[in-house]
Specification:
heterodimer; A: about 475 residues; 17 helices; 4 strands; elongated; B: about 450 residues; mainly alpha; three-stranded antiparallel sheet
Amino acid sequence: MRNVLLKELQINLYSGKMLTTFLLLVTVFLISLGMMFQEYQQRTEHYNLSISGAGKDWLIETVWSWEMPDGGLNSEGIGTFPIGKVKRPQPLSYFARGVDLEFSRPVEYFTHFDHAKIHVYPNHEQNLFKLVFDPPDLLAAVTILLSLLALLFSHGLFSREKEEGTLKQMLAAGASRASIFGGKFIGGFLSLWLCFTGAFLVYALALGFIEAQIMSGEPAARVASIYAACTLFALVFYSLGALISAFSKSSSTSTVLSFFLWLLLIFIVPGTSSMFAQQFAPVPSRQEVERSKLDVFQEVQEEYAADHPAERPAYRDGVEMFGATLETVNEEHQRIEEEYERLQQNQIEMTLDLSRASPAASVSNILSSLSLNGLEDLKLYKSEQQNLLQQIRSQLEAYSRYLWATYPAWARFGRTAEEQRELKRVFDVQTQYEYASMDFDTSMSFVWLDLLLLSIYTLLAVAISYLLFLRYDPR
Amino acid sequence: MIRTIAEKEFFLIVKTLRFLVVILLCLLILPISVWTLSSDFNKERKDYFGRLDVESRNERKESRLNLFRPVPSLYPFVRGIDDEAVNCVSFHFRSWNRQSTESTQSKTHMIIPTVDMAFLVGIVLSGLAFLLSHDAISGEKGGRTLSLISSSPAPRSSVVIGKWIGISAALLIPFLLGFCLSVLLFAFFTGANLASGDYLALALLFLLSALYIAAITIIGVAISALTQNQSTSLFLCLGIWGLICFILPQTANAAATGLHPLAPPHELQRQLRVVENDGLRRLAEDNMQLIETRRRNGWTSSREYDPYRRINYLNMAGNNREGFISLENQFSRESRIQEEISSFASLLSPYGCFKQAVMSLAGTGPDSHRSFVDEAYRFGELYFRQIISTWRENPAASSEELISGLPQFNYRGNDLNVRIGKATLPAGVLVLVIIVFIAAAVFAFNRYDVR
């Protein structure tokens, strides 16, 4: 087996296959690094601007005041809310961008009476072609290129030997089938692994030079896990190539089958999974949700009006009705939102489950989660947004209480120094808030299933290809 | 002679396993993708009408206006950037204009990309085109049948063109069948909502796909003519395919960003707020002066001072709107310059040409979204300018009086002629690619010495 392994390594080395593969991987990885560097710089600039601008660009201004019948003063204040701080960009997004686009969108947190809302802006003033052609991250290079190279390394592993008649010679020379299989399989994979490891090291060193923080502590553990997941992914495709090679009699058949399998697993299976999930786990649209909320609001108000017929239709009664029904309406709205979230989560989970039929989807999930840009990170980000919104709301309430307590001062135009200090505390909530990120163990808890699946695919492919190889009749 | 060679090549491919792959892809995956996207399309369309209904019941039309973009009819074939781009523009009388994306899609597509016809043709079918064409000439060299072909009276250019037509036909005939099946499914699932222009656009989508496949096939044939053996041409074809589909278009964006950098998305929002806040501060000062005037004149009734108060408010709204438009135009101009650079640079790749052309034709690309936003802004500005002018003339005007006679927004997307016009340049580049590579393939084949 050792001889077969060394021979396989030598063939790959001397034929220039290893050098070509290494150079190709390094080139593509470095192109990806260059493009992602540009994007990361923009994200950092955006983040910095969101911190510096958070406390400055909003206003609550008293624009009018008038005398009340009781002799007191009433004021009308209108204003704007600041655009919120975006999530700090993750240096690990070089590996997988995942949902990073969502994290970079300008967010506005605002409150109106008892409603607290979040508005997420589309990146509409940016170059829309970036939505058409995403910059390739390492994940794209791995899923598309590394998988293809793995298949190219293994698709002719046995079929070429069969075609050229060298397999018969090896068997006649007394080599056991297990040693031929093991030697060729391990030798071929070792060649690919050396090329990939070399290219990954070059990439990691170049990235470490740009972003030093990823080379130590938890980020380094994440990078190491990403490397291990990529290696396992390459092994899956390599094993599938070996399976096709053991099955086919000619190298041209195995080439076609490998390419088809590659197209199927890389593009078609993951791509169609979300389509099927949409059919089997439908989610109401945002508009339907808003419509239901509106219906609930009208229903509750009508019920209230039916119970209090004599008090209508004065404006004051309308305000009273709003106040009296607010709690019920809010509860109902929350129930509708929770149901919507649940259905959406169901669909996401079904999409992920279906797409796991392809190792490419598994590796996407693993790399996105380990790069802190996975779907779970998006879920966490949304809940963090709600937390921030609550904090802003409670600060605004505190500010309103302060204004009521200093009523005579509030009734005039312009803010006093004390009022400005109070307002600054509201601004500071956004500036100081740091969105939480998952720790390494939590991220790993979301990827273990995918890692297990990749291992199972590899074992199955190796076992079946070995059985097929055993069945080969040299006559 | 060309016909005979093309027929021979076509029937040779039909008997192989590779053709089965093409059949599976075209007759199974393509219709499935159109079927599922048709149901998305129906849902989005229902939402659009729902939003219009809610908007029609808007009781504060004089101060708030929401304009919506309908989902384009050919969305089930080419999704483009429709799930990410703006489909609603909201205006507030005194406040900034707010754009939003209301999509029914979950965010899974950011991790697992979804499949549509543009993807299947642009990436998958083009890969298969390289797979079928990589050995068109080099396979004959390896199999030593090339000397036999060369001894026949057929000119070498006929061999190249015949093989190109044969391979393209082997890809396009199953694609045509799959496409027709998809159109039937699309018409069935989306109901009778398609105009005759949509069917013409569908036919043009097919022609564009055929042009792209033909361009990729001739590149494969040219590589095959240049190389001596099959494995070299296979490696080269795969490399060029990767370059065309995954490197060149993305590099175009990077180049555009480098050549014409843009401010981050926060910057515009921040500056819009500065304009609005300045307006509010001015309003507060004007109102303060009004209070002084009120005291000086001894006005006691709101009827006496309310018209002045309203004029202050209108001045603020008018100034704000001008400030917003000027800022938004400035930012939009900058991003469009970058987009133009991206668009031109991505024409270097046939995939970039194809994607741009089909998105323009289907109305799901950046140009269509820009056109909606432009149209919405034009309408919104006109709408509020008219309201402000009516209000200035008659400060006591009621809400109904303010909005009476105002036009209705009825955006139906770009006209087909405009869409065809936008797809012409990328389609022209594809034709150019075909001509250049036919010449290159013929030249490379003519240089080959059979001895």
